[in-house]
């Protein structure tokens, strides 16, 4: 069966903020190689020390970058929504990466071979500029996560993480189990259960059967640590009006 391609002439401007800001000619060049893909919850896009062959531009949904230990423990260090893509290491010329990348919130995307994307990236122009902006935002997010995981209480970290995930996925409803939350925060499940219960009793979130709904964003922002606003302000500065 032939692979369905994404054609600029037949589609609206893609929701992805990198692709949507490209000049028409550059988007048309990449468009010949973009393939629409589903991004189901839990889909692994890359594994540590395995070849990275494709980039995945997010249209809807959420992608998580996780640091792993040799025993299989993990903690999330970054999330990606439609402002970016998975596969940055390959784009920068590194065929493997140290982290795991998986779909945290189901959605849709556009896949492209990294060899094709890298060729266009090395030409410079708007694609290179937008990728550099994305690298900066990922750096801010990851560095702030290190500080947050080291210094802040689990309730504040959970609030920050829920708000950040909601911002990147552009949805106040998140499909998350407590086990998954514990993995993302690098905490015990029992600890996260207690923290989620505190937020729920105070009316900030509703949590039922793997679904978390942000019921009162203002209160949740008040419960979050300063890390959320630091990262949020960086995104607002680089992506004005989005």
From TrEMBL:
Name one molecular function that GO assigns to this entry. Answer: DNA-binding transcription factor activity
Any keyword Cell membrane? no
Record-linked SUPFAM superfamilies: cAMP-binding domain-like (SSF51206), Winged helix' DNA-binding domain (SSF46785)
Q: Name one GO cellular component term.
A: cytosol
Q: Where is the HTH crp-type domain?
A: 152-218
Q: Keywords assigned by UniProt?
A: DNA-binding, Transcription, Transcription regulation
Does the keyword Cell cycle belong to this entry?
Answer: no
The record's Pfam families line, in alphabetical order, gives:
cNMP_binding, HTH_Crp_2
Identify this protein by name: CRP-like cAMP-binding protein
- Record organism: Granulicella aggregans
């Amino acid at each position: 069966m032939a692979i369905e391609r994404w054609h600029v002439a037949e589609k609206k401007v893609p929701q992805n903020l990198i692709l949507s800001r490209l000049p028409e000619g550059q988007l048309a060049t990449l468009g010949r190689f973009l393939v629409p893909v589903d991004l189901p919850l839990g889909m692994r896009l890359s594994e540590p020390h395995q070849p990275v062959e494709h980039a995945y531009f997010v249209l809807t949904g959420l992608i998580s970058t996780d640091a792993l230990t040799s025993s299989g423990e993990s903690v999330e260090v970054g999330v990606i929504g439609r402002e970016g893509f998975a596969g940055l290491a390959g784009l920068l010329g590194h065929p493997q990466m140290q982290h795991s990348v998986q779909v945290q919130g189901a959605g849709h995307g556009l896949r492209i071979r990294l060899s094709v994307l890298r060729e266009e990236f090395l030409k410079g122009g708007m694609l290179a500029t937008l990728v550099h902006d994305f690298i900066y935002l990922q750096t801010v997010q990851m560095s702030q996560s290190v500080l947050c995981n080291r210094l802040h209480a689990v309730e504040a970290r959970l609030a920050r993480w829920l708000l950040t995930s909601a911002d990147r996925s552009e949805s106040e409803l998140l499909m998350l189990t407590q086990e998954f939350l514990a993995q993302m925060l690098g905490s015990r499940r029992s600890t996260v259960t207690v923290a989620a219960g505190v937020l729920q009793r105070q009316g900030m979130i509703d949590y039922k059967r793997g679904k978390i709904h942000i019921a009162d964003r203002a209160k949740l922002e008040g419960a979050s640590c300063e890390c959320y606003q630091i990262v949020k302000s960086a995104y607002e500065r680089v992506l004005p009006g989005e």
